[in-house]
Input
Amino acid sequence: MQNPHICHLPSLNGLKAFEAAARHLSFTRAARELSVTQGAVSRQVKLLETALNVVLFHRHHRELVLTDQGRVLSRDLARAFDIISNALERLTRHPHDLNLKVHPTFAIRWLIPKLHLFQALYPDIQVRFTTSSVNVDFSRENFDAGITHLGEKIPGVNRQVILTEQLVVVCSPKLARGNPGLCRPGDLKHHMLLHNSPDLKEWAAWADQNGVPDLPLDKGQVFEVDDAALQAATAGIGVALGDLFLIREELASGRLAAPFGLATIKTGGYYFSWPDSHQTTQGVQLFKEWLTKALLLDQKRDRTALQGVGGIK
Output
C-alpha cells in the first residue's frame, strides 16, 4: 500500500536547496555547497514556495532573511537530513569502524601521538575521529563514543572520568624573566591573560583559589580551545592555564615555564562517554580499556619526569 504522505512531498531537490540556503542565508554559498549555479538554487526555492504556497525568505538587497515559516521548515529539514545522512553512514560503515568525537586539546596533545599504539594492538578496528569542543550529542550525531571536557550527566549516556584536570599557570621562560617579571600571583596584573573560552571561568577559579580578587579577567585574549591559548603562551604573548598532564613535555623541555611552581587547581576533567545502545560494542569496550590503561601508565611515568620542574631555572 502506498504511503499517502509520499505523493504530497515537494521536490527533494527543492527541499535540499532551501535547507542549504537557509543554513548559509545565501543562495551563492548554497550553490557552492551543492555544486550547482546560484540561479538553480534560487529557482528551486521559488518552486518550493509555489508548491507549498508560503514565503520562506524575505529577499533584500544582498541579504536573505527567513520568514517564520522558513525558520520552522529549516529546523525540521536539518533534523531530517541529519537522520538520512546518519542512516546511510551506518549502512555503509564497516562493522569494525569506531567513530569518535574528541576534544581538540586532548586529541592534539595526547590521542594523536598515541593512537598508533591502539591500532597496532587492534589493526581490524578502524578509528576515525572528529575534533570539536562541543560535547557529542548521541541523539543527533553518528558517533560511537566521545572524549569530552567537563561532561554533564545525560540520560541514556554513560561516562567515565579518564583524566582529572589540574591547571597550572604557564608562560614562556622569557616572559617570566622579563620586566615586569612573574614572581608572585599579583604580578599577573601586569600581563595579558590567555583564556581558553569566552566565559573566563578557569582564570576566575584560579584567582579565587589563590586570593587574587582584583585580577583583570576582561582584559585578556580569548581563544576557543586550550591548545590555541597554550600556543600563544609558548610564543610569549601572555600567560595561560594548562593541564599539568597535557603540557608535561613543554615543561620538561623548557618551552613553557611554571613561574609559580606546580601548585594546581582542579576545575573538572576529561570524560569518555558512550550511549547505552553501544554498551556492549566490542570496539567501544576495547578502546575504553586501552585508553584508561594508557593514560594511567603515562601519568605514572611522567611523575618522575616532572620532578624538579617549576619556576625559572
